[in-house]
Amino acid sequence: MATPTKKTSRSRRKAAGTSRAKQASPVPKPKQAAAPAAAPEVPLRPLANSWQLARRTCLLLWQYRRPFGWLLLVYGIIDLLLVHGVSQFDVSSIKSTLNGSGTSSVGGGVAIYASLLGAVANSSSTAAGAYQFFEAILISLVAIYLLRQVSVADAPARPSVKEAFYKGTYPLVPFLLVLLLVGVQFIPFGIGALLYSTVVGGGIAGDVMEQLIFLVIFVVSAVLSIFWLTRSVLALYIVTLPDVKPMEAFHSTKQLVRGRRVSIARKLLFLPVAMFVVAAVIVVPCILIWAPLAQWVFYVMTLLGLLVVNAYLYTLYREVLDE
To answer: Tell me: the pLDDT tens digits for 68-84?
Structure first.
């Protein structure tokens, strides 16, 4: 009986030794590098609303009213000499025509205000339109330089307007190139508006469904242009920095507007609506009270509007930039 027991124990030890040898010398497997932990996404800081931006804009212009007032005066002199001046806005004759047609006072004031807005867009000649465009570019560059000077931490109490004219106009060509891009991005909106006014306003589309289709086309084209403008408008203010090329300025806005296009678009749409309403509240009572005063008030507001637009957009640019 001892022999089988020894054989059995020997066979067990041999099997156990073989098993341990197999376990002790496994084929080493290549180690896999641990995947890097994903960086947590930092939530975007909500931007200030449109009313807050408008309030900051008004406070900024009022705080530095002296340099911006001088800039407005220079702008008015250039416009009176080179373009058309206040004679274009003949409120008295328009008011007399509407009074003869039996239009109500308030309705006539609103109609005159609408005609004045149309007179701003339509220049008396091609040369006047060209002068008006380039003087607007010049004043915008000077205004941007002043806005950048007063926005720094150690802003001077009275920034020099003369220095702004000397130093603020050097990025003229890059600014014009970005502005050309803005004009290209307005093409879908222009095509949609022209198509809608031609087809619907001209009575070509008589069916309600056809009118709805062209209205949808117009809305889509307008949304597309606004979607593009959320980047290019900010690029207008980046390209005025030293040694910044136009495409470099445009590409640098990609990160700034990421996740904020809708918010920026709302603020861009707020600006023309607010300016239209504020100007109407001021100009229409002047038209009803004294027409000669109204045309001067409207003329000054057209000049002031360019400064307000640049100040508001620059405030929006700083709001998006400051994280």
So the answer is: 999 999 999 988 887 76
* Selection from 54, 71, 121, 136 nearest residue 311 by Cα: 54
pTM of the model: 0.79
Residue with tokens 């641990």: 34
Distance CA 132, CA 126 (A): 10
**Three-state secondary structure of the chain:** CHHHHHHHHHHHHHHHHHHHHHHHCCCCCCCCCCCCCCCCCCCCCCCCCHHHHHHHHHHHHHHCHHHHHHHHHHHHHHHHHHCCCHHHCCHHHHHHHHHHCCCCHHHHHHHHHHHHHHHHHCCCCHHHHHHHHHHHHHHHHHHHHHHHHHHCCCCCCCCCHHHHHHHCCCCHHHHHHHHHHHHHHCHHHHHHHHHHHHHHHCCCCCCHHHHHHHHHHHHHHHHHHHHHHHHHHHHHHHCCCCCCCHHHHHHHHHHHHCCCHHHHHHHHHHHHHHHHHHHHHHHHHHHHHCHHHHHHHHHHHHHHHHHHHHHHHHHHHHHHHCC
Amino acid, single-letter form, for residue 259: G
Residue 140 contacts residue 306 (beta carbons within 8 Å): yes
Name the token pair of 163.
Answer: 């220095």
Q: Using one digit for the tens of pLDDT, what is the confidence trace for 269-303?
A: 999 999 999 998 998 888 888 877 888 888 889 89
Number of Cβ atoms within 10 Å of the Cβ of 232: 20
